[in-house]
Amino acid sequence: MTTLALTPAPAHPAARFTDLLAAEWIKLRSLRSTYWALGAGALVVVGFNANAARVHAHDYPRFNPQIRSVAWKLALRDAFTDGSALILVLAAASIGAITVVGEYSTGLIRTTLAAVPDRRALMAAKVVVVTAVMTLYGACVASASFASTQAILTSRHAAVSITHFGALRVVVASALLAPVCALAGMALGALIRHSASTMVAVTAVLLLVPSFITDRYRWTAAVRHAMPVNAWTRLTDIAYGHDPFTRLPRYGATVTGSWVVLGAWAVVSAVIVVVAVDRRDV
Questions:
Q1: Closest to 185 measured CA to CA, from 74, 123, 100
Q2: Could you tell me what percentage of the chain is helix, strand and coil, using 3-state DSSP and rounding each to the nearest 5?
Q3: Per-block mean pLDDT, blocks of 10 residues, the chain (282 long)
């Protein structure tokens, strides 16, 4: 009788971080909803801003000399309006939330975690991919908005260049709004894990709550200034403190503090995504 020696099967090497990045990139670009959300969001944002510039270009002949002397303020406001910022916030946060919640709703998260037991590395790769894509997306949308609005205002000689005081700050702050809100959406998705509830939370946290908080008291002003939309508003308000007809708030936000707020939201949201998935069961 012959005894067969059983040799153990060779162990598969653990996935490298670059492999995880490639896998997350394939997941993101394979979702048809990603293209629709990014494309529709970009068209609406750029169109919204272009329409604001068109209206101002149409009304420009009726402006008095005093308003024409400060036409650069309108040009910078048209480069990225408040309404377009709200649309960008919703689009970016929704895409970020879908990248996490979508895996839970379809059950794909079980297969993913079985293939990659290192949850922290897995979620870190997802954070890196979403941050890179949304940063590029925000840069393209903000640049396209600035270029299109200034091209429209050029017909009235009311446009500004990117080298004008505050123009680059408007473009950079608007571009960063996309990755920051996408990471916030991912963090809420990792905590809630339910599609509808996550979307409601995204709208409430990023849009509704900041609109109800006043800057009348020091502590409420601190909370208000700590919200990403309010930080973006301060950064893009280039005429802040230079308009004699506008009353400044008692506890105003600073430019440096607003940059810190955007960075803090991104870092804290990324940490929540990694820790929440690592500490909780599927």
A1: 100
A2: 75, 0, 25
A3: 55 79 90 85 95 94 86 93 94 93 86 87 95 97 97 92 95 97 96 92 92 87 93 92 75 93 97 90 72
